[in-house]
Amino acid sequence: MAVAARAEKRPLSIGTVILWVLVIAGLWSSYIRFTQGLGAATNLSDGRPWGLWITFDVLIGIALAAGGFTLAAIVYIFRLERFYPLLRPTILTAFLGYGLAATAIMFDLGLPWRIWHPLVYWNIHSPLFEVAWCVMTYLTVLALEVSPVVFEKFNLKGPLNLVRAITIPLVIVGIVLSTMHQSSLGSVFLIVPYRLHGLWYTGILPILFFVSAVAVGLAMVIFESSLSASAFKHRVKQGILAEVGSYIPYVLGLYLVLNLGALVVSGDVTLLFEGSVASLLYLLEIIGGVIIPIVLFSMPSVRQNRKALFRAAFLVIVGVLLNRFNVSLFGLGGAVYAPSWMEFAVTAGMVSAGVLIYMFTINNFPVLGGSSDAH
Amino acid sequence: MAVDRRDFLKLAGASVGGLLLSSAVSEQASAVSDAGMAETDVSMLYDTTKCVGCKACQTACRDWNKTAPEVDSSGIYDTPQDLSGDTWTLIQLYEEGPSWSFVKHQCMHCLDPACVAACPVAALQKSEEGPVTYDATRCFGCRYCMIACPFHIPKYQWDTNAPLIRKCTFCTDRMAQDMGPACVDACPTGALVWGNRGDLLADAHARIAENPDKYVDHVYGEHEAGGTLAIYLSHVPFEKLDFPALDSEPLPKQTELAMASVPGIIVGMGALMSGVYYAKSRGEKGKEA
Q: How many CB atoms lie within 10 A of CB A185?
């Protein structure tokens, strides 16, 4: 394999140095957070109890990791095995995304040492209870889905065959769990009809969260493969990425219809024309993150061009990112809030750590280029 | 390729359809309500026309619950500005031209509380007698209750490294000793009384009927968010006193629908994925043969 070539290509670039600096800044902020508490480390308050960590690390981290279950469904359930070369890096990203979310929850919980409480103290009516269970179980599923990479590396035939044997049930469980919690993250905001702005509050919020997660999951597959292509000199066939891109207009189209349909049905569509900051944010999200990408991904010329495809995928990602910010921060009534530098540092540090772990894994384990086995 | 794309659309369509269907099916299940049971719940009635703003209630609350005073710059006076981790009830003054009023803020103790539905570890619970109680040993600090509460009542101990949610307890601990809530027992003017909810509501409506010019014709908390144990009479419009305009639908109803669809999603999505897998696998075998 091309491991040697990759190792040569692995310089201690300026990028890697920056990532390490961010990780260290994040560690310092973590120290403050865990020794002095949330009040000292964050700008959260009684008027703004959820901030950057919940929005970015948890909501966005989990949405961007949706490529894991989407691609697993495409490859294993729909048996479209030509997408297999994309699967391992995507599953790895999903695993790291959920790892990020789980770690961020430890930072955000006031009493993180009680993170296991949902296991014993139940409230089945709480969307957050469901999310907690799903994230815990799905993280386990993802770990198992990633594990062949490790088993192959160390040539552990026994465990490898065991995981292979349960791959299909595992994938199905992963899809069910993902459907549940991707949508439930939207359900979390159903209980705040008075607090959440009418442009985002709708009874179908869970469905919107789920559909947008599928769209952004596919976009992340393209985004990541493109980055890997330049970082690791590993290119998958453009045709495959183009095909992933060709699915996106359908998913985003469905999202658009549901989103606008809900606005029209509720009558909140009038809020669009009030010229408020909220209406601008909504338009930015829908036009920039949904409508323009639908047009772009529908154009064969865009799909066949690596850079154009990358940019279109990037728009979808920014759109979903903005959507989660709108739902959980900008559109959610409460005190004025800007994250402290420590909140930023923790988030940036965790994302950087994720990228470093990703690079390390790619460089040392058989993630890219598919597996050597019969696939 | 075209076929594959159609399959993909089927997947997307079926997923969304499943979500829609299961939420429709579950609608009946969530329509169960326990309103009407609240007549005999403990309750308190606050009347702005009788409050003189002495803040004895605030001090009594502090004394009983041993919360720390929030002193001003002189270091002498306890002057909390808002409800907080240390201040669970607060008298505020509303003043606009010649119109003014005192108002007491505290947990409304909803009949069907959003915080109780939201709390993932069931730390917040609705007690037998009515008040919304908090079990500090369960809470892990997610603060979803603070997001969920339409009255913005639960507050957090931001300054400590082992923070808890804090709010009015309705002095359930005093009631266990046959005492009334500390704030009610301290009120010298009868602006604050307690009793069972049915009686207090009747009393409130009687007061409005006796003095229709004196009061706004509305008993706040009778229906808001499905009804609350803390009910209010006022001589100025309630929105002036920072009471949100809420309809009578309890907030947990919004979430119940989605949560009741979860079993449908598990079964539906699981069956769908298994079905597609077997159909696809058979198709492949057919091709090979």
A: 28
| Other CB atoms within 10 Å distance of the CB of residue B244 | 14
Please, what is the Cα angle at A287 between A285 and A293, to 5 degrees? 100
Burial of A165: CB neighbours in 10 Å, binned 0-12, 13-18, 19+: exposed
What residues of chain A score a pLDDT lower than 70?
Answer: 1-12, 369-375
B14 touches chain A (CB under 8 A): no
Residue of chain B with shortest Cα separation from A246: B5
Chain B (56-85) residues lying within 8 Å, Cβ to Cβ, of chain A: 82-85
Query: Across the strands, what pairs with B156?
Result: B165
Please state, in angstroms and rounded to a whole number, the distance separating the CA atoms of residues A315 and A319: 6
Structure-token match 């266990």, residue found: B176
Q: Which B positions 192-251 lie with beta carbon below 8 A of chain A?
A: 244, 246, 251
Q: CA–CA separation, A153 vs A146, rounded Å?
A: 12
pLDDT at A2: 42
pLDDT by residue (tens digit) across A286-338?
999 999 999 999 999 999 999 999 999 999 999 999 999 999 999 999 999 99
Q: Between A127-153 and A157-165, two packed helices, what is the crossing angle to 10 degrees?
A: 140
Whole-complex ipTM: 0.92
Residue A322 to residue B48: CA distance in whole angstroms: 44
CB-CB contact of B152 with B23 (8 Å): no
Structural domains in chain A, CATH included, are: 3-335+351-364 (1.20.1630.10)
CB A239 within 8 A of CB A246: no
How far apart, in whole angstroms, are the C-alpha atoms of residue A66 and residue A72? 10
Q: Which residues of B touch A36 (CB under 8 A)?
A: 161
Dihedral angle over CA of A286, A289, A292, A296, nearest 10: -150
Q: For chain B, what is the radius of gyration of the CA atoms?
A: 25
| Angular region, B107: left φ>0, alpha ψ -120 to 50, beta rest | beta
DSSP A132: H
Tokens 């993902």, located at residue: A178
Give the residue among B232, B237, B230, B179 at the shortest CA–CA distance from B207.
B232
Please report the domains of chain B, with CATH numbers, ordered by start residue: 37-255 (3.30.70.20)
